[in-house]
């Protein structure tokens, strides 16, 4: 396989993006010395085109676009193994969170945009119903993703086994859940939360 060359220039290096990641995550990317301990312990590294240490290296080189165009950040399971193993206190799990947030704000262009859609619908359901409503999640996901028949045959099986409810009751404590969402929005406005 041919090695892909990376061209570094003022046009391709985006240091603003790196500064944003550092601010959001509260962690320096400059401290990374590329020892690879994070990637060696990451349970999801084999699924990523850029394992954790390479994500940090790409950030050091101002290649945020390249990271957001890939799927690695969406495979991260937030297990924090990388953060725990780093000998130089790089908080990679927080960096992954910050990258997902920036990808979310930019609305793509992730190769895993279905993950973003699923994320949005998941949160939307929690805010509207106070709990997950799997039937709606699946139906709206299929509609919005254009994959109308995805898992179509699975639905009746799950319903017959009582694993999927057709009708759904809202959580009694919906007001409290709404208060949590409102508080997070306030904190975001003040820059106190991602
Ligand atoms: S937090 Fe994410 S990147 Fe870090 S080890 Fe876990 S899965 Fe890998
Ligand atoms: S463990 Fe820390 S220093 Fe080593 S490559 Fe990963 S982020 Fe960099």
From TrEMBL:
Superkingdom, natural source: Bacteria
Domain (4Fe-4S ferredoxin-type) ranges = 22-52
Which Pfam families would you find in this protein's record? Fer4_8
Q: Does the keyword 4Fe-4S apply?
A: yes
List the keywords (alphabetical): 4Fe-4S, Iron, Iron-sulfur, Metal-binding, Oxidoreductase
4Fe-4S is among the record's keywords:
yes
**Membrane-crossing residues?**
none
Q: Which GO terms describe its cellular component?
A: plasma membrane
One MF term in the entry's GO annotations: 4 iron, 4 sulfur cluster binding
The name this protein goes by in its record: 4Fe-4S dicluster domain-containing protein
Organism lineage reads as: Bacteria, Pseudomonadati, Thermodesulfobacteriota, Desulfuromonadia, Geobacterales
């Amino acid at each position: 396989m041919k090695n892909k060359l990376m061209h570094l220039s003022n046009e391709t290096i985006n240091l603003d993006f790196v500064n944003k990641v550092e601010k959001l995550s509260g962690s320096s990317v400059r401290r990374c010395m590329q020892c690879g301990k994070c990637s060696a312990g990451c349970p999801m590294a084999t699924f990523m085109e850029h394992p954790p240490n390479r994500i940090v290296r790409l950030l050091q080189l101002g290649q945020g676009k390249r990271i957001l165009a890939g799927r690695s950040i969406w495979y991260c399971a937030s297990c924090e193994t990388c953060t725990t193993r780093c000998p130089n206190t790089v908080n990679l799990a927080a960096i992954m969170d910050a990258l997902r947030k920036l990808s979310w704000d930019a609305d793509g262009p992730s190769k895993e945009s279905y993950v973003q859609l699923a994320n949005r619908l998941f949160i939307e359901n929690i805010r509207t119903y106070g709990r997950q409503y799997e039937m709606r999640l699946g139906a709206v996901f299929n509609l919005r993703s254009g994959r109308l028949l995805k898992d179509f045959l699975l639905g009746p099986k799950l319903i017959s086994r009582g694993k999927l409810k057709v009708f759904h009751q809202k959580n009694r404590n919906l007001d409290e859940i709404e208060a949590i969402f409102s508080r997070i929005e306030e904190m975001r406005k003040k820059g106190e939360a991602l």
